[in-house]
Inverse folding.
């Protein structure tokens, strides 16, 4: 067995990222239906769905963060190819490694920086909304930290893979 076969790690991380992406797709579809229900109720029956603004505004960040791990793993992020397209293989590997390292550090900073606010949100049961409906915010703050930690691991895996590429020795 070589230093890094990586097959089971890659498979686990990819499956986990896909599950998070599926959750975000279901969440996004639910939000679309909620908005449709609100618009139809508002326009045809003069009865809007109360709390739509609060639910949607809190869902946008969650949906985005749930999609990030798979986006990073599949390298679907926006990239400028002006420099990247004109350099050699080793330079591309260096750029990739630095990009993944910076992404991991960014996710780590988000997790560490958000931790005190999440703890406080749980302590005070932070909620958003006025009057008729209030939406709890503390689960969203927790989700941001959780997915940021997942982002750190995905970025670390990609740094490792760019430094130690998987070689197929069966050919």
């Amino acid at each position: 067995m070589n230093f890094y076969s990586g097959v089971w790690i890659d498979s686990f991380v990819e499956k986990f990222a896909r599950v998070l992406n599926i959750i975000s797709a279901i969440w996004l579809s639910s939000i679309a239906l909620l908005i449709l229900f609100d618009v139809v109720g508002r326009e045809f029956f003069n009865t809007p769905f109360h709390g739509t603004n609060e639910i949607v505004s809190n869902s946008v960040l969650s949906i985005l963060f749930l999609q990030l791990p798979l986006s990073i793993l599949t390298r679907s992020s926006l990239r400028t190819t002006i420099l990247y397209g004109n350099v050699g293989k080793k330079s591309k590997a260096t750029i990739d490694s630095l990009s993944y390292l910076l992404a991991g550090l960014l996710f780590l900073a988000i997790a560490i920086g958000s931790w005190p606010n999440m703890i406080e949100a749980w302590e005070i049961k932070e909620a958003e909304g006025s009057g008729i409906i209030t939406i709890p915010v503390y689960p969203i703050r927790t989700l941001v930290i959780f997915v940021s930690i997942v982002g750190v691991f995905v970025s670390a895996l990609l740094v490792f893979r760019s430094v130690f590429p998987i070689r197929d020795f069966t050919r």
Remarks:
- The first strand starts at residue 127 and ends at 128.
- The chain has a mean pLDDT of 85.
- Strands lie at 127-128, 135-136.
- The first helix runs from residue 7 to 44.
